[in-house]
UniProtKB/TrEMBL annotation:
Residues in the signal sequence: none
Protein name: DNA-binding NarL/FixJ family response regulator
Species classification: Bacteria, Bacillati, Actinomycetota, Actinomycetes, Propionibacteriales
Keywords tagged on the record: DNA-binding, Phosphoprotein, Transcription, Transcription regulation
UniProt entry tagged with the keyword Phosphoprotein: yes
Domain Response regulatory: 3-119
4-aspartylphosphate modified-residue sites: 54
Record domain HTH luxR-type: where: 146-211
Transmembrane intervals: none
GO BP field: phosphorelay signal transduction system; regulation of DNA-templated transcription
Length: 217
């Protein structure tokens, strides 16, 4: 079972999400929170796998919750679920360690599938969010300072990071670079450690910010 904590300051929203997810045979809601701090406490106490977080909540908001979750329960994945798709929220959520970003207009089936995908280690973004991210990276050229952070990587690690940024799985990277999947996993772990990144999501953001990959290239 995938254990989920829901954080939203509106009772109706939390209740609706809980009722929706109760219909899924492999998902169980183990806690409901009204702010980010409470969500983190429940996630740690009840060993949650995925935490659904609204961004704008009184007290400790969703962004603060993500940052605290990374320290309190790094095994858990944070999935932002909000009515807002503003650029600053998206980028802040990604840098804080979010594994996905969905709007509250997302159809129920897509939400359930999204929870499963994030739990499996994949990245998940609403279509409108992806479009805005791509448009922003196209408008903003990389800076020499940002590019320098990749200097600690070997040539092979740069190739793996580029493939991660293209959305390839470990198996697909192995097939493309003629590497065993276990070797790819080792490269990914070293990349994250060298660049002080929490997960593949942050690796993708960095790859775009440094210009290692460009949209449409």
């Amino acid at each position: 079972m995938i254990k989920v904590v829901i954080a939203d300051d509106q009772d109706l929203v939390r209740g609706g999400l809980s009722a929706l997810l109760a219909c899924e045979p492999d998902i169980t809601v183990v806690g409901e929170a009204t702010d980010g701090q409470q969500a983190v406490g429940l996630a740690r106490e009840r060993a949650a796998d995925v935490v659904l977080l609204d961004i704008e909540m009184p007290g400790s908001d969703g962004l603060q919750g993500i940052r605290a979750l990374a320290q309190a329960r790094p095994e858990a994945r944070a999935l932002m679920l909000t009515t807002f798709d503003l650029d600053e929220y998206v980028f802040e959520a990604l840098r804080a360690g979010a594994s996905g970003f969905l709007l509250k207009t997302t159809p129920p089936a897509e939400l359930s599938a999204g929870i499963r995908a994030v739990h499996a280690g994949e990245m998940l973004f609403a279509r409108s969010v992806v479009r805005r991210l791509v448009e922003t990276f196209v408008r903003q050229p990389p800076t020499p300072t940002a590019s320098g952070v990749l200097s600690s990587l070997t040539e092979r690690e740069v190739e793996v990071l580029r493939a991660i940024a293209r959305g390839l799985s470990n198996a697909e990277i192995g097939a493309e670079l003629y590497l065993a999947e276990t070797t790819v996993k080792t490269h990914v772990a070293r990349i994250l450690a060298k660049l002080n990144l929490r997960d593949r999501v942050q690796a993708v953001v960095l790859a775009y910010e440094t210009g290692l990959v460009r949209p449409g290239a």
